[in-house]
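Handout, page 2. Input:
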Amino acid sequence: MNIIKRNNVHVQGNKGPVILYAHGFGCNQKMWDRITPAFNSTHRQVLFDYVDSGQSDIASFDKKRYSSLQGYAQDILDVCDALDIQNGIIFVGHSVSCSAGLIASIARPELFECMVLIGPSPCFSNHYPEYLGGFEHEDLEGLLSLMDQNYIGWANYLAPVVSGEGGGEAVSRELSESFCSTDPHVAQVFAKTTFFSDNRTDLPLVTCPSLILQHNRDTLAPLEVGDYLHKELKNSTLKVLDVAGHCGHMSHPELVIEAMLEYFDTSCLRLQGK
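Output:
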C-alpha cells in the first residue's frame, strides 16, 4: 500500500531533526501552516492527513480500524515507516492526536525524542470525583446526535466553540470549512472515537518527555485536564497559554512557536536543529 498517497504525506526541508505534525478531529494538515514557517530552516517537517481527513485516500477508510485510537496511532507509525524514520522524532499533536501520539510512543518508544501536546485530553467526559474532562456523557451524546441529524448545523455550531473568542472569524471559518469538507459518515466515526475514548490508563506507560500546552480558557479541555496530564505523564512540562479556545496553533501561533522553541532550548538542547 502506498502510505504516502493514502495519508497525503508532505515533507518540508531535508535537514535537521524531524518534526511530525498530527492534526485534530475534523481538521487537516493545513492547520499547521501558521507554525511550520518558523522551523523551515532548522527542521525536516512531516505533515499528513489521517485516512478520514483532508486529502487522504478515503477509499482506504476502515470503520473498524478507526473506531479506536489505535487505528490513528497506526497511521502515525505507518507514515514514519513509509519515510524510513527510525528515531529522533519530535511529535507535535493537537487535541485527540495527542492521545494517538502517546499510544504510538508506547508501541514504539525508540521512534520519539519528545512530544508537544497542544490542547490534549485523555478523556473528554467527567468521571467524578477523580477526573474532570469537561463534559457530561449525555452532552457528548447530544453533540453526536446533532451531528447525525444536521451535519452542516453541527459544523457551524462546533467551529466557533473550538476556535474560541480569541480565534477570530478567520479561524472559525477555516475550521467550519474543514468540518464540512469531511464525509459526514466518516466524520461521525472519528467523532465517536474522539469524544468517547478514555486513555487515562495509558499515561503511566509513556516514557517519552513531553511539553503540555494548555489553553487557559478552553471549553473542550479545561485547566484540570492539563494538571491531570502533568501529574500522570513522566518527564512532562506544563505550560498554560493565554489563549481562549482549543486551537492555539491557529489562533495564537506565535505563543505556540515561542513555547516550542523554549522547550527545545531548555529541555531538548540537541533538538534545536543547529
